[in-house]
Amino acid sequence: MTRQSYIFTSESVSEGHPDKVADRISDTVVDAFLGREPEARVACETMVTTNRIILAGEVRGGSEEQTAEIIGSLEERVRAAVKDIGYAQEGFHWQNADFACHLHGQSAEIAQGVDATDTKEEGAGDQGIMFGYACDETPSLMPATIQYSHDILRRLAEVRHSGECEVLEPDAKSQVTLQYENGRPVEVLQIVVSHQHKATLPGGGDPTSEAMAEILKPYVLQEIPDGLITARTQWHVNPTGRFEIGGPDGDCGLTGRKIIVDTYGGASPHGGGAFSGKDPTKVDRSAAYACRYLAKNVVAAGLARKCTIQISYAIGVANPLSFYVDLHGTGEVDEAVLEKALPEMMNGVTPRAIREHLQLNRPIYARTAAYGHFGRTPDNEGGFSWEKTDLVEAIKGLA
Fold this sequence. Notes:
Blueprint: E1 6-13, H1 18-36, E2 41-49, E3 52-60, H2 64-85, E4 98-105, H3 108-114, E5 128-135, H4 144-162, E6 168-181, E7 184-197, H5 209-223, E8 229-237, H6 247-250, E9 253-254, H7 259-262, H8 283-300, E10 306-313, E11 322-326, H9 335-345, H10 351-358, H11 392-396
Parallel strand pairs: 3-4, 7-8
Antiparallel strand pairs: 1-6, 2-3, 2-9, 5-10, 6-7, 10-11
Protein backbone atom coordinates (compact mmCIF):
# COMPACT_ATOMS: atom_id res chain seq x y z
CA MET A 1 0.00 0.00 0.00
CA THR A 2 1.30 3.47 -0.89
CA ARG A 3 2.28 5.58 2.11
CA GLN A 4 -0.40 8.08 3.05
CA SER A 5 1.55 10.44 5.35
CA TYR A 6 4.93 11.73 4.26
CA ILE A 7 7.00 14.77 3.25
CA PHE A 8 7.91 15.25 -0.42
CA THR A 9 9.89 17.85 -2.38
CA SER A 10 10.18 18.85 -6.04
CA GLU A 11 12.22 21.56 -7.76
CA SER A 12 11.92 23.66 -10.89
CA VAL A 13 14.29 25.92 -12.78
CA SER A 14 13.54 28.99 -14.88
CA GLU A 15 13.86 29.54 -18.60
CA GLY A 16 17.11 31.38 -17.85
CA HIS A 17 18.76 28.48 -16.05
CA PRO A 18 21.76 27.47 -18.21
CA ASP A 19 20.46 23.96 -18.85
CA LYS A 20 17.07 25.37 -19.83
CA VAL A 21 18.73 27.87 -22.17
CA ALA A 22 20.33 24.86 -23.86
CA ASP A 23 16.97 23.04 -24.01
CA ARG A 24 15.28 26.09 -25.52
CA ILE A 25 17.93 26.38 -28.20
CA SER A 26 17.77 22.67 -29.05
CA ASP A 27 13.99 22.80 -29.36
CA THR A 28 14.26 25.95 -31.48
CA VAL A 29 16.32 23.83 -33.86
CA VAL A 30 13.65 21.11 -33.84
CA ASP A 31 10.99 23.69 -34.66
CA ALA A 32 13.09 25.18 -37.46
CA PHE A 33 13.29 21.79 -39.17
CA LEU A 34 9.70 20.67 -38.58
CA GLY A 35 8.45 24.06 -39.75
CA ARG A 36 9.97 23.35 -43.17
CA GLU A 37 9.77 19.57 -43.32
CA PRO A 38 7.26 17.72 -41.09
CA GLU A 39 9.18 14.44 -41.55
CA ALA A 40 12.52 15.97 -40.58
CA ARG A 41 14.89 14.12 -38.30
CA VAL A 42 16.63 16.10 -35.56
CA ALA A 43 18.87 15.13 -32.66
CA CYS A 44 20.39 18.40 -31.49
CA GLU A 45 22.55 18.95 -28.40
CA THR A 46 23.46 22.44 -27.20
CA MET A 47 26.14 23.70 -24.84
CA VAL A 48 26.11 27.26 -23.52
CA THR A 49 28.82 28.89 -21.45
CA THR A 50 30.36 32.33 -21.05
CA ASN A 51 29.47 34.12 -24.31
CA ARG A 52 29.50 30.89 -26.29
CA ILE A 53 26.76 28.78 -27.91
CA ILE A 54 27.65 25.43 -29.51
CA LEU A 55 25.29 23.13 -31.43
CA ALA A 56 26.07 19.53 -32.33
CA GLY A 57 24.12 16.53 -33.52
CA GLU A 58 22.43 14.90 -36.49
CA VAL A 59 19.74 16.29 -38.76
CA ARG A 60 17.85 15.57 -41.97
CA GLY A 61 15.50 18.16 -43.40
CA GLY A 62 14.48 16.80 -46.77
CA SER A 63 16.92 17.39 -49.61
CA GLU A 64 20.56 18.26 -48.95
CA GLU A 65 19.87 21.76 -50.23
CA GLN A 66 16.91 22.28 -47.91
CA THR A 67 18.83 20.87 -44.94
CA ALA A 68 21.69 23.28 -45.63
CA GLU A 69 19.25 26.18 -45.95
CA ILE A 70 17.66 25.40 -42.58
CA ILE A 71 21.05 25.07 -40.92
CA GLY A 72 22.00 28.43 -42.40
CA SER A 73 19.00 30.03 -40.70
CA LEU A 74 19.75 28.70 -37.24
CA GLU A 75 22.07 31.37 -35.91
CA GLU A 76 19.43 34.07 -36.29
CA ARG A 77 16.77 31.82 -34.71
CA VAL A 78 19.04 30.85 -31.80
CA ARG A 79 20.01 34.43 -31.04
CA ALA A 80 16.34 35.43 -31.09
CA ALA A 81 15.54 32.67 -28.58
CA VAL A 82 18.28 33.85 -26.21
CA LYS A 83 17.05 37.43 -26.57
CA ASP A 84 13.51 36.31 -25.77
CA ILE A 85 14.71 34.66 -22.56
CA GLY A 86 16.29 37.99 -21.62
CA TYR A 87 20.06 37.57 -21.81
CA ALA A 88 21.88 40.78 -22.64
CA GLN A 89 24.60 40.52 -20.00
CA GLU A 90 28.30 41.10 -20.34
CA GLY A 91 29.01 37.41 -19.73
CA PHE A 92 26.22 36.07 -21.95
CA HIS A 93 24.64 38.31 -24.56
CA TRP A 94 22.19 37.22 -27.25
CA GLN A 95 23.92 39.40 -29.85
CA ASN A 96 27.58 39.02 -28.90
CA ALA A 97 27.97 35.38 -27.89
CA ASP A 98 30.14 33.28 -30.21
CA PHE A 99 28.02 30.82 -32.19
CA ALA A 100 29.25 27.50 -33.58
CA CYS A 101 27.10 24.94 -35.40
CA HIS A 102 28.37 21.37 -35.80
CA LEU A 103 25.15 19.72 -36.95
CA HIS A 104 25.63 17.08 -39.66
CA GLY A 105 23.65 14.46 -41.55
CA GLN A 106 21.87 11.62 -39.79
CA SER A 107 23.53 8.21 -39.81
CA ALA A 108 22.30 6.12 -42.74
CA GLU A 109 22.31 3.05 -40.50
CA ILE A 110 19.94 4.67 -38.01
CA ALA A 111 17.76 5.95 -40.84
CA GLN A 112 17.34 2.48 -42.35
CA GLY A 113 16.01 1.16 -39.07
CA VAL A 114 13.62 4.02 -38.43
CA ASP A 115 12.24 4.98 -41.84
CA ALA A 116 9.17 3.23 -43.19
CA THR A 117 9.46 1.30 -46.49
CA ASP A 118 7.11 -0.68 -48.70
CA THR A 119 7.83 -3.75 -46.59
CA LYS A 120 8.41 -2.27 -43.13
CA GLU A 121 6.51 0.09 -40.85
CA GLU A 122 8.35 3.02 -39.32
CA GLY A 123 10.36 1.82 -36.34
CA ALA A 124 11.25 3.42 -33.02
CA GLY A 125 14.18 5.81 -33.16
CA ASP A 126 15.90 4.03 -30.28
CA GLN A 127 15.42 1.36 -27.67
CA GLY A 128 14.30 2.40 -24.21
CA ILE A 129 11.58 2.70 -21.60
CA MET A 130 9.25 5.68 -21.15
CA PHE A 131 6.85 6.60 -18.36
CA GLY A 132 3.75 8.73 -17.98
CA TYR A 133 2.00 9.77 -14.78
CA ALA A 134 -1.05 11.62 -13.54
CA CYS A 135 -2.64 12.18 -10.15
CA ASP A 136 -5.55 14.17 -8.76
CA GLU A 137 -3.55 16.46 -6.43
CA THR A 138 -4.01 19.53 -8.66
CA PRO A 139 -6.43 20.64 -11.41
CA SER A 140 -3.69 19.93 -13.98
CA LEU A 141 -3.53 16.34 -12.66
CA MET A 142 0.12 16.88 -11.75
CA PRO A 143 1.91 16.33 -8.44
CA ALA A 144 1.46 19.45 -6.31
CA THR A 145 5.15 19.87 -5.45
CA ILE A 146 6.31 20.18 -9.06
CA GLN A 147 3.24 22.17 -10.16
CA TYR A 148 3.75 24.82 -7.47
CA SER A 149 7.49 24.97 -8.16
CA HIS A 150 6.78 25.65 -11.84
CA ASP A 151 4.05 28.17 -11.05
CA ILE A 152 6.34 30.21 -8.81
CA LEU A 153 9.01 30.60 -11.48
CA ARG A 154 6.52 31.21 -14.29
CA ARG A 155 5.01 34.06 -12.26
CA LEU A 156 8.42 35.57 -11.54
CA ALA A 157 9.28 35.36 -15.24
CA GLU A 158 6.07 37.24 -16.06
CA VAL A 159 6.89 40.16 -13.77
CA ARG A 160 10.49 40.20 -15.00
CA HIS A 161 9.47 40.36 -18.66
CA SER A 162 6.80 42.97 -18.02
CA GLY A 163 9.21 45.21 -16.11
CA GLU A 164 7.06 45.10 -12.98
CA CYS A 165 9.99 43.65 -11.03
CA GLU A 166 13.05 45.36 -12.48
CA VAL A 167 15.68 43.81 -10.23
CA LEU A 168 15.24 40.27 -11.61
CA GLU A 169 17.55 38.60 -14.14
CA PRO A 170 16.71 35.39 -16.05
CA ASP A 171 18.36 32.62 -13.99
CA ALA A 172 16.31 31.16 -11.13
CA LYS A 173 15.44 27.99 -9.21
CA SER A 174 12.59 27.05 -6.89
CA GLN A 175 11.80 24.16 -4.59
CA VAL A 176 8.63 23.27 -2.66
CA THR A 177 8.35 20.77 0.20
CA LEU A 178 4.85 19.59 1.16
CA GLN A 179 3.46 17.63 4.08
CA TYR A 180 1.02 14.96 2.93
CA GLU A 181 -1.67 13.44 5.15
CA ASN A 182 -3.99 10.70 3.92
CA GLY A 183 -2.31 11.08 0.56
CA ARG A 184 -3.26 14.75 0.18
CA PRO A 185 -1.04 17.85 0.46
CA VAL A 186 -1.96 19.73 3.62
CA GLU A 187 0.90 22.14 4.34
CA VAL A 188 3.93 23.78 2.75
CA LEU A 189 6.88 23.10 5.02
CA GLN A 190 9.71 24.65 2.99
CA ILE A 191 9.97 27.07 0.06
CA VAL A 192 13.27 27.76 -1.68
CA VAL A 193 13.68 30.51 -4.28
CA SER A 194 17.08 31.46 -5.65
CA HIS A 195 16.80 34.25 -8.21
CA GLN A 196 19.48 36.08 -10.14
CA HIS A 197 19.34 39.84 -9.68
CA LYS A 198 20.88 43.08 -10.87
CA ALA A 199 23.79 44.67 -8.99
CA THR A 200 21.52 47.03 -7.07
CA LEU A 201 17.87 47.38 -6.23
CA PRO A 202 15.76 49.92 -8.14
CA GLY A 203 16.56 53.30 -6.62
CA GLY A 204 19.73 51.91 -5.03
CA GLY A 205 20.31 49.51 -2.20
CA ASP A 206 21.91 46.11 -1.82
CA PRO A 207 19.92 43.05 -3.00
CA THR A 208 20.50 41.04 0.17
CA SER A 209 18.66 37.83 0.92
CA GLU A 210 16.31 39.76 3.17
CA ALA A 211 15.64 42.44 0.55
CA MET A 212 15.01 39.85 -2.16
CA ALA A 213 12.69 37.91 0.16
CA GLU A 214 10.59 41.01 0.68
CA ILE A 215 10.34 41.49 -3.09
CA LEU A 216 9.67 37.87 -4.07
CA LYS A 217 7.40 36.56 -1.31
CA PRO A 218 4.23 38.36 -2.48
CA TYR A 219 4.54 36.78 -5.93
CA VAL A 220 5.18 33.33 -4.47
CA LEU A 221 2.13 33.62 -2.25
CA GLN A 222 -0.03 34.26 -5.33
CA GLU A 223 0.84 30.79 -6.65
CA ILE A 224 0.23 28.64 -3.56
CA PRO A 225 -3.38 27.65 -2.77
CA ASP A 226 -4.94 29.21 0.31
CA GLY A 227 -4.29 27.43 3.58
CA LEU A 228 -1.13 25.58 2.59
CA ILE A 229 1.32 28.21 3.83
CA THR A 230 1.28 28.36 7.61
CA ALA A 231 3.28 29.78 10.50
CA ARG A 232 5.50 26.69 10.24
CA THR A 233 6.45 27.33 6.61
CA GLN A 234 10.16 28.06 6.31
CA TRP A 235 11.42 30.38 3.57
CA HIS A 236 14.86 30.25 1.95
CA VAL A 237 15.28 33.13 -0.52
CA ASN A 238 18.73 33.45 -2.11
CA PRO A 239 20.15 31.55 0.87
CA THR A 240 23.78 31.90 -0.30
CA GLY A 241 23.52 35.71 -0.41
CA ARG A 242 24.19 37.58 -3.66
CA PHE A 243 23.19 35.94 -6.93
CA GLU A 244 24.36 38.46 -9.51
CA ILE A 245 26.47 36.18 -11.72
CA GLY A 246 24.21 33.55 -13.23
CA GLY A 247 23.04 31.89 -16.40
CA PRO A 248 25.59 30.40 -18.77
CA ASP A 249 28.20 32.86 -17.49
CA GLY A 250 27.94 31.36 -14.01
CA ASP A 251 27.46 27.70 -14.95
CA CYS A 252 27.79 25.74 -18.20
CA GLY A 253 24.44 24.54 -19.58
CA LEU A 254 23.72 21.38 -21.55
CA THR A 255 20.63 19.96 -23.22
CA GLY A 256 18.76 17.30 -21.29
CA ARG A 257 20.13 17.78 -17.78
CA LYS A 258 16.81 18.65 -16.11
CA ILE A 259 14.72 15.60 -16.95
CA ILE A 260 13.00 15.38 -13.55
CA VAL A 261 12.10 19.08 -13.72
CA ASP A 262 10.71 18.36 -17.19
CA THR A 263 8.46 15.54 -15.97
CA TYR A 264 6.96 14.84 -12.53
CA GLY A 265 9.43 16.21 -9.99
CA GLY A 266 10.44 12.74 -8.84
CA ALA A 267 6.89 11.59 -8.03
CA SER A 268 7.04 9.10 -10.91
CA PRO A 269 9.79 7.01 -12.51
CA HIS A 270 11.63 8.45 -15.51
CA GLY A 271 12.86 6.34 -18.38
CA GLY A 272 16.20 8.11 -18.60
CA GLY A 273 15.89 9.84 -21.97
CA ALA A 274 15.67 13.60 -22.28
CA PHE A 275 13.08 15.29 -24.50
CA SER A 276 14.49 18.54 -25.88
CA GLY A 277 16.32 18.58 -29.19
CA LYS A 278 14.58 15.47 -30.50
CA ASP A 279 12.04 15.18 -33.30
CA PRO A 280 8.94 13.05 -32.52
CA THR A 281 10.25 9.87 -34.16
CA LYS A 282 12.42 9.66 -31.05
CA VAL A 283 10.25 7.69 -28.64
CA ASP A 284 12.13 9.16 -25.68
CA ARG A 285 9.95 12.16 -26.39
CA SER A 286 6.82 11.05 -28.23
CA ALA A 287 6.13 7.89 -26.23
CA ALA A 288 6.59 9.76 -22.94
CA TYR A 289 4.00 12.23 -24.21
CA ALA A 290 1.68 9.36 -25.14
CA CYS A 291 2.05 7.77 -21.71
CA ARG A 292 1.20 11.07 -20.00
CA TYR A 293 -1.79 11.50 -22.32
CA LEU A 294 -3.20 8.08 -21.49
CA ALA A 295 -2.46 8.31 -17.76
CA LYS A 296 -4.06 11.75 -17.55
CA ASN A 297 -7.20 10.53 -19.30
CA VAL A 298 -7.47 7.59 -16.89
CA VAL A 299 -7.37 9.91 -13.87
CA ALA A 300 -9.62 12.51 -15.54
CA ALA A 301 -12.14 9.72 -16.17
CA GLY A 302 -12.27 9.03 -12.45
CA LEU A 303 -10.98 5.47 -12.74
CA ALA A 304 -8.02 6.14 -10.42
CA ARG A 305 -6.49 8.85 -8.25
CA LYS A 306 -3.04 7.98 -9.54
CA CYS A 307 -1.86 6.28 -12.72
CA THR A 308 1.61 5.33 -13.94
CA ILE A 309 2.16 3.90 -17.42
CA GLN A 310 5.36 2.37 -18.76
CA ILE A 311 6.06 1.50 -22.38
CA SER A 312 9.17 0.04 -24.02
CA TYR A 313 10.60 -0.17 -27.54
CA ALA A 314 13.46 -1.63 -29.56
CA ILE A 315 15.22 0.50 -32.16
CA GLY A 316 13.79 -0.03 -35.63
CA VAL A 317 10.78 -2.01 -34.32
CA ALA A 318 7.33 -0.44 -34.62
CA ASN A 319 5.29 -2.25 -31.99
CA PRO A 320 6.08 -1.68 -28.32
CA LEU A 321 7.68 -4.54 -26.44
CA SER A 322 5.58 -3.96 -23.32
CA PHE A 323 2.80 -1.77 -21.95
CA TYR A 324 2.29 -1.60 -18.18
CA VAL A 325 -0.29 0.21 -16.03
CA ASP A 326 -0.12 0.80 -12.26
CA LEU A 327 -3.03 2.49 -10.46
CA HIS A 328 -1.24 2.47 -7.09
CA GLY A 329 -4.11 0.79 -5.31
CA THR A 330 -6.51 3.62 -6.20
CA GLY A 331 -8.17 2.09 -9.23
CA GLU A 332 -11.81 1.44 -10.07
CA VAL A 333 -10.86 -0.97 -12.86
CA ASP A 334 -8.44 -3.86 -13.32
CA GLU A 335 -5.06 -2.67 -14.67
CA ALA A 336 -5.07 -5.58 -17.13
CA VAL A 337 -8.20 -4.15 -18.75
CA LEU A 338 -6.42 -0.83 -19.28
CA GLU A 339 -3.28 -2.54 -20.56
CA LYS A 340 -5.35 -4.08 -23.35
CA ALA A 341 -7.66 -1.16 -24.12
CA LEU A 342 -5.46 1.94 -23.88
CA PRO A 343 -3.00 1.01 -26.67
CA GLU A 344 -5.94 0.30 -28.96
CA MET A 345 -7.19 3.86 -28.39
CA MET A 346 -3.97 5.08 -30.01
CA ASN A 347 -3.86 2.52 -32.81
CA GLY A 348 -1.29 0.33 -31.12
CA VAL A 349 1.02 3.11 -29.79
CA THR A 350 3.51 2.62 -32.59
CA PRO A 351 5.78 5.62 -33.18
CA ARG A 352 3.77 6.69 -36.23
CA ALA A 353 0.44 6.15 -34.49
CA ILE A 354 1.54 8.37 -31.60
CA ARG A 355 2.76 11.11 -33.92
CA GLU A 356 -0.45 11.06 -35.93
CA HIS A 357 -2.83 10.86 -32.98
CA LEU A 358 -1.16 13.72 -31.09
CA GLN A 359 -0.18 15.57 -34.30
CA LEU A 360 3.42 15.91 -33.21
CA ASN A 361 5.04 16.70 -36.57
CA ARG A 362 4.67 20.43 -36.04
CA PRO A 363 6.93 23.21 -34.76
CA ILE A 364 5.51 23.13 -31.22
CA TYR A 365 8.51 22.31 -29.09
CA ALA A 366 10.35 25.50 -28.06
CA ARG A 367 7.40 26.30 -25.77
CA THR A 368 7.97 23.04 -23.87
CA ALA A 369 11.55 23.81 -22.88
CA ALA A 370 10.79 25.55 -19.55
CA TYR A 371 8.25 25.03 -16.74
CA GLY A 372 7.59 21.40 -17.58
CA HIS A 373 6.37 19.38 -20.53
CA PHE A 374 3.30 18.26 -18.58
CA GLY A 375 0.50 19.98 -16.73
CA ARG A 376 0.24 22.63 -19.42
CA THR A 377 -2.77 23.90 -21.37
CA PRO A 378 -3.21 22.73 -24.99
CA ASP A 379 -2.93 25.70 -27.35
CA ASN A 380 -4.43 26.65 -30.69
CA GLU A 381 -1.25 25.82 -32.62
CA GLY A 382 -1.22 22.20 -31.45
CA GLY A 383 1.17 22.62 -28.55
CA PHE A 384 0.70 20.30 -25.56
CA SER A 385 -1.79 18.12 -27.42
CA TRP A 386 -0.86 15.32 -25.02
CA GLU A 387 -2.62 17.28 -22.24
CA LYS A 388 -6.05 16.86 -23.84
CA THR A 389 -8.63 14.72 -22.07
CA ASP A 390 -10.58 13.66 -25.13
CA LEU A 391 -10.48 9.94 -24.25
CA VAL A 392 -12.37 10.33 -20.99
CA GLU A 393 -15.75 9.08 -22.22
CA ALA A 394 -14.22 6.04 -23.93
CA ILE A 395 -12.18 5.20 -20.81
CA LYS A 396 -15.20 5.55 -18.51
CA GLY A 397 -16.80 2.77 -20.52
CA LEU A 398 -14.09 0.37 -19.34
CA ALA A 399 -15.23 0.44 -15.71
